[in-house]
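lol ok so funny story. i was supposed to be doing the assay writeup but got distracted and ended up predicting the structure for this chain instead. priorities right. anyway since i did it might as well share w the group, maybe its usefull for someone
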Amino acid sequence: MRSLRSLDLKKAPSVAETLDWARTLVVLGREEIGEKDAAETLHILLKYQSDIERATKELLGRSKPVA
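and the output, tada:
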């Protein structure tokens, strides 16, 4: 979360989005979060496509989000 909130985004993830993301990871049965899990669930944390693309590039070193 700290890394995402440090990016220049239109809207940084709030507590509500963070909790939604955590619930999603629990439902998916993830005890650890790998790069693939992070990339596939960024849309839960971020509302804008441009923010998803920026986070994907800055944090995961990819030019496009995982489809």
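Residues 2-60 form one domain. The chain has a mean pLDDT of 88.
back to the writeup now i swear
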